[in-house]
Amino acid sequence: MILFxxxxxxxxxxxTALQPFKSYLMDAAKPLYGLADMPxxxxxxxxxxxxxxxxxxxxxxxxxxxxxxxxAKVQKxxxxxxxxxxxxxxxxxxxxxxxxxxxxxxxxxxxxxxxxYVMIDKGSEDGVYEGQPVVDAYGLFGQIMEVASHSSRVLxxxxxxxxxxxxxxxxxxxxIAEGMNDFIELSIPNVALTSDIIxxxxxxxxGLGGIFPVGYPLGRVAEITHDEGLPFSIIKVKPFxxxxxxxxxxxLFNRDG
Amino acid sequence: MKADLLVLVTVLAAMLLSIVDMxxxxxxxxxxWVLLVLFYWVLALPExxxxxxxxxxxxxxxxxxxxxxGRHVLAYSLVVAVVLVAHKRLRMxxxxxxxxxxxxxxxIERLIKYWIDIxxxxxxxxxxxxxxxxxxxxxxxxxxxVLRSLRRRVGLIRVxxx
Lengths: 257, 162
What we know:
The structure holds two protein chains of two kinds.
Chain A (H helix, E strand, L loop, with lengths): L1 H13 L4 H10 L1 H7 L1 H12 L3 H39 L8 E10 L7 E4 L12 E3 L4 E8 L4 E5 L6 E6 L5 E6 L6 E7 L9 E4 L11 E9 L6 E8 L8 E6 L4
Antiparallel strand pairs in A: 1-2, 1-12, 2-5, 3-4, 3-12, 4-5, 6-7, 6-9, 7-8, 8-11, 9-10, 10-11
Chain B lengths: L1 H18 L13 H12 L6 H14 L6 H15 L1 H6 L2 H25 L11 H23 L9
Helix pairs in contact in B: 1-2, 2-4, 2-7, 3-4, 4-6, 6-7
């Protein structure tokens, strides 16, 4: 049995031979995930059913106002898009790939505090692919790390094995944001003590690395420590995405097919 | 038949508890439900449940928790092997002595999993990984009572071999 498990370990870490079997098991376990999500669902269901009429009216009014604001913003965005396309044509640059979106619901979050992932209810049947970028309503969320036919796992930007190429909106400086297994803090390594970066700077994806499309907001610089004894500044970033609370995420299709 | 169903249901329930959503601050306090239930059935019916059952459950657990495959298989089968060898002695212990053993065994299991994590690229994270072993040991006496009463209710009495 020891030999068997060591064989499994080696196979899984060095090859992708186990992939079909893994996605098969993931599909087979789907009902269990659904059951594990039951408490959340029931809570939401109960909350929805027992809301007072006044509460509903207030909520409705809020949503209407929000819808109005968003529609106005979309109008402006449409105008900006047209302008952008025209400018790009003037510059002879290639047009950005048309981005398609897919809404997915989080069904289970990682039970292991050293492994930051969530499971979503869309899989290869819906066109999800490995390495696909995921955002939530507030900012960059993560990327797909494992796909089964009706579910997949999203590696969060806060996972310690994850890093995103980003740029500072203010100066355009290119940096890397790494996860630290902390939902509310990312770190930026290897930044020289003299570089122009201040608290409150906003970071967005830079589009380098080929996984994340350019321009999705990542977070805000929350803390900078300059220690003359260290070769680099210690920089902490607070991500915009609600990594530990979001129920719905958006999958971006930024490659063809 | 009814008995097999009980074992299946308790193991499934334990798996469910091991992935159910918890507030992120309390994640380290999650007991090793699956291993505790596995220990109970191995202690109660060592002639029916052993290393093979442990490995099977471990494989499913690997899938459920997105681990490297083989992580739970190795950890579970090793500690269950220890329980299997020592089951006669363990049965003689009272609940709290057993809990002490459970602490050691789950500590070993966590350690094996921790080694595998480190070997597959996880950064070391201090001694927190041992905390669930303590919680599991504290839960064991109560879990044992619950499972025992369930077992007696379905009439699954141990056959004693001499």
